[in-house]
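Can you give me the bound-state structure? Components:
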Amino acid sequence: MTSQTNAPLPAVAVRNLEKTFVLHTQGGARLPVFAGLTLDVFPGECVALHGPSGAGKSTLLRSLYANYKPGSGQVLVRHDGGTVDMVSATPHQILAVRRHTMGYVSQFLRVIPRVSTLDIVAEPLITLGTAPEEARDRARALLTRLRIAERLWSLAPATFSGGEQQRVNIARGFSVPYPVLLLDEPTASLDAANRATVLELITEAKQRGAAVIGIFHDADARAAVADRLFDVLPVPSQAA
Amino acid sequence: MTMTPPAPLLRVEGLTHYYGSRLGCGDVSFDLYPGEVLGIVGESGSGKSTLLSCLSARQEPGGGRVLYQSRHDGEIDLYSVSEPRRRLLMRTEWGIVHQNPRDGLRMTVSAGANIGERLMAVGARHYGEIRDQAIDWLGRVEISDDRTDDLPRTFSGGMQQRLQIARNLVTQPRLVFMDEPTGGLDVSVQARLLDLLRGLVSSLGLSVIIVTHDLAVARLLAHRLMVMKEGRVVESGLTDQVLDDPHHPYTQLLVSSVLQV
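Here's the bound-state model for the whole set.
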């Protein structure tokens, strides 16, 4: 980093993050995942988490979203003109950050019985106060780009194929222009055309200034959108 | 600034209740905010229902306080006001959805009357308006208007539960207590009810305290969870945190015991 006074602040600053799972149902086994982890991610850049399977990339992503609770350290997120530490924040603050600032596209869609595809995609915007019809217009545009056939929009996605569910999940994740996007394998199990569309969406998000942190097993996808790699290395387990 | 949360609707401090020498619930404290859904999970006998009864003015606790931010009269200490005042509150600002619809409905009067009766209890007198509202609410819980004059006992279990919900929500409560609202229903009927509840809670901005032993129900409806064991809260937090990264041995056992479909 330079010492320019107008240097941008990181959108996400991870400080000394530590995460260990303690499995009480399995004799109290301790599984350390990472420790002393520090990372800055700035608006407009995409950082790819890099490391072997099982190294803790998804655990890190979930810890940033406060889905997992790190043992110590900080995840400082710029939010609403201030900074929120996702590790120590109250549930209300975390939910506010998730609604307004931080989007997370998981690998699997959590299907809600009876809720239509269109409403699943429009819901995050409606929660933010966008008029339902405007939110649905945005949802229609995203579903069209991601090649979900219009005849499926009114159906709940429980019976969709894995690839279709993943695209619905991506459409939902990109419906709100979040300043921070966390992406867990967004291009896995997609065909070439849809993979290209997802990479376009990521590029557009970066161009509007989003800080993107992602896991991309597909090397071509990673090369297409990532500005740099961040190594996540496995910690030797003491449990074995 | 949007970061500042509004005042809590309910503040619970050190709530404790014993049945003789046996602990019902011990030293439970939490705040509930407007629009928030709090799930209380745990096995049978963990103290969930005792806690819900103490919170909803149906069981005076041995110790602790329940402070409720009322619509017009500021904060009320639930168990230091008179019984009639508490009853008025329950009628005008609260709702209670019981596990068994028979406990929350009057089985000997029509579906429409079950809803209309609640409106009359808060002062409605115009028959036409009461009937219109009753029919409107039957529609909102997906009961067709040609069933308005039927007795609830002619309804299926799922319909009875939806009617109980309509009876509770017609008076526009701010806080609704639910005790295993989907317990005893078929899975397909559960899904419909859950979806309906989810929609109503978010569109009406209701605050809800829901007791359930079904973690899938908790995940779908609750923003926050409290996990109870032997009368104590052993873990609490955001719903997805508690279910995806449980820390307490008991919560880990609960989560790992759920059968995958």
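A couple of observations. Chain B has two domains: 18-93+173-261, 106-172. The longest helix of chain B spans residues 187-204.
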